[in-house]
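re: ur question from the group chat, yeah i did fold both. here u go
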Amino acid sequence: ETPTLKFQITQSGKPVTKIDPYLGGFGHVVVMSHTDPAHFEHAHPVTEGEPMDGTMEFEAGFPVKGMYTIFSQFKIGGQVSTFTITIRVVNGNGAKEDEMDENEDNM
């Protein structure tokens, strides 16, 4: 099961009720692993339609344990804002780290 990231967009402590579309979505999330540079994920909200209460959910995977930085972007009042969060994942969500087959050629 893919983990869900839930964002509550607020301004002055109150939910933002008007989030503008930006590049085809009401928000964007990029997840980057610090330990596995091959893991880069870009997601749009799975929330249907315009988020009227400032809440948006995204599906994003964390395949291996380690540090991840999550970049999120939202357009509010005509201005794009980017927020970053760095987290430590203690257990990946089930994917195994790649292991090279000993018969595989290195090129």
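okk and heres the other one u asked abt
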Amino acid sequence: QLFVQETSTDIFFKITAYAEQLLNDLERLTPANLQIVTIKPQIAGQGIIVEIVANGRSSRDNVVFVSNLESSGKFYEVSPLHEEISKNPAFVGREIAVQVKYKGQS
């Protein structure tokens, strides 16, 4: 019986590749008039839960973003947390926060 243990370097490269894939997927799904402000991933059981805060020029931009996440096949259980006028003085628009589960490769 052969037992192979992953090294910390192997684990680091897996996490880095996963994070890079997450960022690439979000970039592909983000509408032109929407700016992602924060991304907070966390491990939950066997999956990844990601909280995303973004600023859209309008509520429509936020709706398009949520719809893109839901239809992507990469994200599921998309749950809006809040939508309100952006508090950022340098940005005119609406802030949205969503919590999603991330599948990664599909």
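fwiw on the second one: The first strand starts at residue 34 and ends at 44. DSSP finds two helices and four strands in the chain. idk if thats what u expected
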